[in-house]
């Protein structure tokens, strides 16, 4: 009943005749109500003749479902993983809603036949969350519980520097690669926090190179036109003890036309293919004896219209220092490029003369757009693949550049 009760106590507390009068009236009301509540057995009686509660009263009984939320309401400094859990005894959860201050909802999973709920992902750091949980008992009666808590503010953090850039169009060999500013000792948590979806759908798996780099790729080269979306949700991930991620970004990129170029170190040629068809053959020079070019599949990771190449930067001492090197594209972290060469004389198509790079005929500074190096530079994009064959050196290390394609799928997914 929701009617306002008559407050006899306050009336009795007053002094004077009016107070006594109200007390008498109040007593009369009590007597009257007692008489109305007697067990007369009529159809409007509050209880049946055998003393059992009516069906109306049974419907108002409290639910036996008992909902509990951890952490307790008002808690601060809550860990971002493993702390949040909703349970119910003598019932099943029918609704669990967890939101941050911006209204972003946290996905979760029901277990134990609907008796327990945990988040599917980690929580963000330094964030206030609200929890609303509803459960039903075996009679269908609902019980609800609400809570608020705030996650910890980390003292030590890490970031992930990624490639390719958001909004870019890249070649079919381009992995999604993340380099972390701190060594990761909890790789499963970090890998779980990076979700990749594609259109059309394709299985994409991650592989760790050491403890500070994680690359993702499909089993084969990307299909032309594939749209890739990366949810880089590192905020709140404990990458190592006491060190938490502090970024949450969405990166989207598109796979362009299928271009793979094949360098034959013995024939001193490079065949450029698109969709498997040769569209052009160019004369090249590769690494001379003792400085042979790596074999294997290498991905273009950087394009420089003009640069300077100094042997000291790649462990060759003062053997060379060449200025104004045109149309340079990086193939390995260690310093292998495919680039324009204006000092090679008649080496192109005839013999190998470089310190390990693949060279194409060019002019100093790259001002002539008609030379082979300029043509190749203008027809290449980040993520294109350059395959070197028949060199006297070994296959390039998969970790040296974005060159995980030199690893079998079985090894990649270990």
TrEMBL record:
<protein>
    <submittedName>
        <fullName>Ig-like domain-containing protein</fullName>
    </submittedName>
</protein>
<feature type="active site" description="Proton donor/acceptor">
    <location>
        <position position="339"/>
    </location>
</feature>
<feature type="compositionally biased region" description="Low complexity">
    <location>
        <begin position="45"/>
        <end position="55"/>
    </location>
</feature>
<keyword id="KW-0961">Cell wall biogenesis/degradation</keyword>
<feature type="compositionally biased region" description="Polar residues">
    <location>
        <begin position="56"/>
        <end position="66"/>
    </location>
</feature>
<dbReference type="InterPro" id="IPR041280">
    <property type="entry name" value="Big_10"/>
</dbReference>
<dbReference type="InterPro" id="IPR038063">
    <property type="entry name" value="Transpep_catalytic_dom"/>
</dbReference>
<feature type="region of interest" description="Disordered">
    <location>
        <begin position="42"/>
        <end position="66"/>
    </location>
</feature>
<keyword id="KW-0133">Cell shape</keyword>
<feature type="transmembrane region" description="Helical">
    <location>
        <begin position="21"/>
        <end position="40"/>
    </location>
</feature>
<keyword id="KW-0573">Peptidoglycan synthesis</keyword>
<keyword id="KW-0808">Transferase</keyword>
<keyword id="KW-0812">Transmembrane</keyword>
<keyword id="KW-0472">Membrane</keyword>
<dbReference type="InterPro" id="IPR050979">
    <property type="entry name" value="LD-transpeptidase"/>
</dbReference>
<comment type="pathway">
    <text>Cell wall biogenesis; peptidoglycan biosynthesis.</text>
</comment>
<dbReference type="InterPro" id="IPR005490">
    <property type="entry name" value="LD_TPept_cat_dom"/>
</dbReference>
<dbReference type="Pfam" id="PF17964">
    <property type="entry name" value="Big_10"/>
</dbReference>
<feature type="active site" description="Nucleophile">
    <location>
        <position position="357"/>
    </location>
</feature>
<keyword id="KW-0012">Acyltransferase</keyword>
<dbReference type="Pfam" id="PF03734">
    <property type="entry name" value="YkuD"/>
</dbReference>
<keyword id="KW-1133">Transmembrane helix</keyword>
<feature type="domain" description="L,D-TPase catalytic">
    <location>
        <begin position="259"/>
        <end position="389"/>
    </location>
</feature>
């Amino acid at each position: 009943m929701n009617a306002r009760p008559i407050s006899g106590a306050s009336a009795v507390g007053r002094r004077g005749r009016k107070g006594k009068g109200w007390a008498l009236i109040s007593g009369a009301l009590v007597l009257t109500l007692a008489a109305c509540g007697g067990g007369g057995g009529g159809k409007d009686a509050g209880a049946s003749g055998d003393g059992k509660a009516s069906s109306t009263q049974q419907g108002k009984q409290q639910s036996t479902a008992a909902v509990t939320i951890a952490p307790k309401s008002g808690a601060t400094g809550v860990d971002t993983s493993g702390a949040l859990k909703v349970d119910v005894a003598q019932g099943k959860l029918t609704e669990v809603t967890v939101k941050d201050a911006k209204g972003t909802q946290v996905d979760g999973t029901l277990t134990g036949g609907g008796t327990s709920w945990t988040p599917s992902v980690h929580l963000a750091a330094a964030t206030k969350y609200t929890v609303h949980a509803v459960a039903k008992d075996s009679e269908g009666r609902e019980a609800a519980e609400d809570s608020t808590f705030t996650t910890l503010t980390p003292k030590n953090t890490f970031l992930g520097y990624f490639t390719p850039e958001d909004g870019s169009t890249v070649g079919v060999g381009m992995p999604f690669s993340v380099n972390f500013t701190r060594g990761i000792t909890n790789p499963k948590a970090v890998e779980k926090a990076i979700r990749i979806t594609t259109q059309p759908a394709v299985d994409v798996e991650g592989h760790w190179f050491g403890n500070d780099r994680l690359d993702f790729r499909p089993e084969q080269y990307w299909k032309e036109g594939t749209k890739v979306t990366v949810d880089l949700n590192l905020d709140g991930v404990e990458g190592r003890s006491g060190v938490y991620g502090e970024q949450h970004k969405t990166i989207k990129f598109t796979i362009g036309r299928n271009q793979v170029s094949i360098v034959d170190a013995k024939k001193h040629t490079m065949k450029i293919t698109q969709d498997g068809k040769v569209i052009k053959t160019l004369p090249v020079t590769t690494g001379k004896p003792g400085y042979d070019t790596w074999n294997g599949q290498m991905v273009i990771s950087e394009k420089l219209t003009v640069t300077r190449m100094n042997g000291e930067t790649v462990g060759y001492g003062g053997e060379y220092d060449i200025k104004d090197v045109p149309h340079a594209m990086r193939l390995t972290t260690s310093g292998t490029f495919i680039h324009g060469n204006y000092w090679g004389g008649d080496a192109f198509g005839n013999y190998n003369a470089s310190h390990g790079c693949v060279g194409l005929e060019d002019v100093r500074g790259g001002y002539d757009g008609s030379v082979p190096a300029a043509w190749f530079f203008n027809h290449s994009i980040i993520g294109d693949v350059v395959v070197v064959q028949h060199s006297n050196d070994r296959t390039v290390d998969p970790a040296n550049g974005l060159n995980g394609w030199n690893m079998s799928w079985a090894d990649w997914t270990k």
